[in-house]
Amino acid sequence: MSELNQLRERIEEINIAILDLLSERGEIAKQIGLEKRKAGTMIYDPMREKEMINKLQDLNKGPYDDNVIKQLFKEIFKASTELQKSENEKHLYVSRKLKSDDTIVTTANGGVIGGDEKIFVFGPCSVESYEQVEQVAENLVEKGQKFIRGGAFKPRTSPYDFQGLGVEGLKILKEINKKYDLAVISEVVDPHHFEMADPYIDIYQIGARNMHNFELLKEAGRSNKPVLLKRGLSATIEELIYAAEYIHASGNSNIIICERGIRTYEKATRNTLDISAVPILKQGTHLPVLVDVTHSTGRKDIMLPVAKAALAVGADGVMAEVHPDPSVALSDAGQQMDLNEFDLFYKEIEQARKLYR
Ligand code: PEP
Ligand code: MN
């Protein structure tokens, strides 16, 4: 046998010996994990890791540099920590790996989001008056809809723009809910709003601007109603999933995610609808996913094909804004459908919906 082949053979023997030792180490690490769990101590112990690395560096005779030894063992420690975690700790609560069946969100009026049938959430951008909301509500009931949206607390870009009717707006929505049996979806912007809005709202909305408001997310987690969480203006899908995790980790699993477009350099639409977020969120989480075609496109002329695309890629429903007279709307006047435009949109999207049941 040539010298090279002999050396290679020895290297392979050493590989196998290292592998055996790693396997033995892994088994012991798992046992340590069980002991730690019994004792209620943290799995990750940085002080202990540091001690072990210092000792190894002291014993290091080369030829590897101390830093190389440190990096190699850090990888081994990381793998051991992963082994010590339970299945629950390895995955997020919202992950489909932890719960493979779909989360289905229901409302008292029989509304179902995330079930076999795709749904719609329509309604004005802002609640402006009882009559304004009622005109939309009547139209929705004629169409057999179960939900209505409308903002009472509006996070506006300019402090001089209409900020919403506040509690008065919520009271209007409650009247509509009582009269028309539509489940009400409305945004809250302050952790104290959950308790205050509880009598009036069926599904709390957390808007794009508050997706990173962790105190609001935690309070949403402590509430006992479903939460519709919108993607932040420049949030990655991972950040959106973590925002949902905040709600779930605080105790509320009734979460609906809403893709509403993100900010990019593209100016042809108000935001860029990230259509691929829909199947990614459906694969990665067990939560229902809606697509808001109003705030993503900002363009009534393309809302219908975009809504169809959303259903085609697996969204559980579509959200869009409808106003009896958008020309006088106090917010988003340019992109809310009037009732005639809405009829045309609805006829087509309802056909599309049936295709994807
Ligand atoms: C809304 O849906 O009323 C709204 C303000 O949307 P976003 O938070 O997505 O901008
Ligand atoms: Mn709006």
From TrEMBL:
Limits of the Chorismate mutase domain: 1-88
NCBIfam families the UniProt entry points to: CM_A, DAHP_synth_Bsub, PRK08673.1, PRK12595.1
UniProt-listed GO biological process terms: aromatic amino acid family biosynthetic process; chorismate metabolic process
InterPro entries: Aldolase_TIM, Chorismate_II_sf, Chorismate_mutase_GmP-bac, Class-I_DAHP_synthase, CM_dom_sf, CM_II_prokaryot, DAHP1/KDSA, DAHP_syn_2
Enzyme Commission number, as recorded: 2.5.1.54
Name of this protein: 3-deoxy-7-phosphoheptulonate synthase
Alphabetic keyword roster: Transferase
Pfam families in alphabetical order: CM_2, DAHP_synth_1
Any one GO molecular function term: 3-deoxy-7-phosphoheptulonate synthase activity
